[in-house]
């Protein structure tokens, strides 16, 4: 009789230790790590037999910032050259308020190209 009680006590202790060890492992297993994956911009048709071609659009945030920065800078540069203002890209709020280094680099390239393009056009018209 005493051996049965001893066996039950040992079994209960073993189960308790096993459960306590399992609790720590499941708490760590419940941690969720979310990673955003980079995305690429392209439109590519694929053929669906009954409905014709279907287009898929995916956006890459770095390429998008580069294109938007260049476009904004180019239009601002042309506008400044047309108004006769100095070649100063840093004075624009689009440049100074941007958090993206990619956007700023593209903005400077676009501004320089737009400013010089419009300035050259104005000089060639005056000749």
**Main sheet record:** 2 strands, antiparallel
Overall shape: it is elongated
What structural class is derived from the secondary structure elements? Answer: mainly alpha
Question: What's the N-to-C terminus distance?
Answer: 117 Å
Overall mean pLDDT stands at 79
Strand content: 5-15%
Poorly predicted runs: none
What would you report as the Rg, rounded to the nearest angstrom? 33 Å
Order of helices and strands: HEEHHH
The number of E-state strands comes to 2
Major beta sheet, strand line-up: 1-2
User: Number of helical runs?
Assistant: 4
**Which range best describes the helical content: under 10%, 10-25%, 25-40%, 40-55%, 55-70% or over 70%?**
55-70%
Entry summary:
This protein is mainly α and 127 residues long.
Q: In words, what does this structure look like?
A:
The chain is mostly helical and 127 residues long. It starts with a helix and ends with a helix. The model has no long low-confidence stretch (mean pLDDT 79). It is built from four helices and two strands; from the N terminus they run αββααα. It has helices at residues 2-29, 61-83, 93-96, 101-126, and strands at 42-48, 52-58. The longest helix is centred in the first third of the chain and has 28 residues, at 2-29.
């Amino acid at each position: 009789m005493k051996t049965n009680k001893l066996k039950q006590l040992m079994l209960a202790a073993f189960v308790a230790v096993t459960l306590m060890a399992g609790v720590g492992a499941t708490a760590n297993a419940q941690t969720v790590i979310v990673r955003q994956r980079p995305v690429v911009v392209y439109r590519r048709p694929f053929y669906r037999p009954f409905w014709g071609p279907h287009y898929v659009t995916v956006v890459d945030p770095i390429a998008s910032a580069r294109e938007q920065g260049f476009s904004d800078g180019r239009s601002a540069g042309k506008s400044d050259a047309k108004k006769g203002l100095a070649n100063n890209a840093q004075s624009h709020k689009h440049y100074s308020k941007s958090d993206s280094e990619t956007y700023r680099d593209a903005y400077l390239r676009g501004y320089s190209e737009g400013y010089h393009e419009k300035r050259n056009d104005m000089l060639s018209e005056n000749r």
